[in-house]
Design brief:
Number of strands: 3
Protein name: HAT C-terminal dimerisation domain-containing protein
Keywords: Metal-binding, Nucleus, Zinc, Zinc-finger
GO molecular function, one term: zinc ion binding
Strand content: 5-15%
Strand order of the largest sheet: 1-2-3
Order of helices and strands: EEEHHHHHHHHHHHHHHHHH
InterPro entries: HATC_C_dom, RNaseH-like_sf, ZnF_BED_domain_contain
GO cellular component, one term: nucleus
Number of helices: 17
Length: 413
């Protein structure tokens, strides 16, 4: 059985720091399992050495400390960085030291912190700041929140704005998407005397629509890879390549300035990590072992892979070598002994030249796997390998090893 791990550090409401460690594997019934094997309070400095020690202590409880082979970064964190860089490229943010809710001078004093929107030079961060601070203000002021909810209920089913949390993935998208869905109520509420500082112009609402469009594919990708009931690592490389395409499309769809910095910042970040990921063999094998993908995705996007020095044809040969390794390391029963030909052994050997049975077996297995068309997208990946375990014994073993690897640290949070 192959086991993978995730770990992350988080702080409880009483400000104590904890480090969680989870184990992930595919059991004999081909079910993806998640087990919490460590939850330790962190004492002292949060240095890399200290966290590594706590992580190894969790593994030692189950005698798993010698099983470390490879390390893969958290894709959700990468997507968080991509969205941050994209928004940063849209406008330089002016940090606000305190929210209006904590300012005794009242929310109207926020006006001095925000430049009036100009038609030709909109500040995207100004838009985000106003929505963010109004949401924060409503969450901290029961009276104003009740007035906002009353306004919202006249038109919508949802109740209020969502607050932005800088450390939570997709937080900015959730906040802006909710504000956009409550546009009429938001505008009506900002006609109140003390709320006009949060008002957004029609053009600013249009720019917010663009930001939501820009962040949406990152939100969708994060939602997919944070799943715990199905394999996620097999979708990592395809998602990276498709995200680069979707982000560029979003920027081209809206005639906003500056389009090029907005598109290049996140795509540059994705490119940087994609180059690193193509060196992480488990991600490639997991994608190929997804019966809905096989080699089809890599062949379709071969030109994009060529840009990063990887060819689909090369992947097939490397994949075969990896499969041979798993066959040679498997616990298959030894072949039955063959009768000795003794005196005629030389002639027999010449009649039946010695082949490489393992290589031929693996090659035939891979060829048959690739010969079948990819499965439909609704296919249960693990159920597929359970059903075809006898036909593809070596590939089944690889699937149980690689498809159990989680692509984010979400299970530890």
């Amino acid at each position: 059985m192959f086991i993978s791990f995730t770990t992350d550090v988080w702080t409880s409401h009483n400000l104590n720091a904890y480090m969680a460690v989870t184990a992930h594997f595919i059991d004999q019934q081909y079910q993806l399992k998640l087990v919490l094997i460590g939850l330790n309070e962190i004492q002292g400095d949060h240095t890399g050495t200290s966290l590594a020690r706590i992580f190894l202590e969790s593994l030692k409880r189950y005698t798993l400390e010698d099983q470390m082979v490879n390390a893969i970064g958290c894709m959700a964190h990468v997507l968080h960085l991509v969205s941050r860089d994209g928004l940063k490229a849209l406008g330089n943010r002016s940090p606000v030291e305190s929210s209006p809710a904590n300012n005794p001078r009242g929310p109207m004093d926020l006006k001095s912190l925000i430049d009036p929107p100009e038609v030709l030079n909109l500040n995207y961060d100004s838009i985000i700041s106003r929505v963010e601070h109004l949401a924060s203000y409503l969450h901290q002021s029961p009276q104003w929140r009740e007035r906002f909810i009353t306004t919202v209920k006249l038109v919508y089913n949802v109740t209020t704005l969502l607050s932005h949390v800088s450390t939570r993935w997709n937080s900015t998208y959730d906040m802006l998407e909710r504000a956009l869905s409550l546009k009429d109520a938001y505008n009506q509420y900002c006609t109140l005397e003390n709320m006009q500082a949060y008002r957004l112009s029609p053009l600013e609402w249009e720019k917010m629509k663009f930001m939501v469009q820009f962040l949406q594919p990152l939100y969708q990708a994060t939602t997919i890879i944070c799943g715990s009931k199905y394999p996620t690592i097999n979708q990592t490389l395809p998602l990276y390549i498709l995200l680069m395409k979707r982000i560029n499309q979003a920027c081209l769809q809206y005639n906003v300035a500056p389009i090029e910095p907005a598109a290049s910042a996140p795509t540059n970040k994705l490119t940087k990590y994609l180059i690193l990921l193509l060196k992480k063999i488990p991600l490639i094998w997991a994608s190929i072992l997804d019966p809905r993908l096989k080699m089809k995705f890599f062949i379709t996007h071969n030109s994009k892979l060529e840009d990063f020095g990887t060819l689909a044809k090369e992947l097939e040969s490397i994949f075969e070598r990896e499969a041979r390794y798993h066959l040679s390391s498997s616990n298959e029963p030894s072949p039955l002994p063959q009768p000795s030909h003794e005196q005629g052994s030389v002639l027999i050997d010449e009649i039946y030249p010695m082949a490489h049975p393992e290589a031929n077996t693996v090659k035939n297995e891979i060829q048959q796997y690739f010969a079948e068309p990819p499965e439909v997208k609704t296919t249960d990946v693990l159920l597929f390998w359970k059903s075809w375990a006898t036909m593809f014994p070596t590939l089944k073993k690889m699937a149980c090893k690689y498809l159990a690897i989680p692509e984010t640290s979400a299970p530890s949070e």
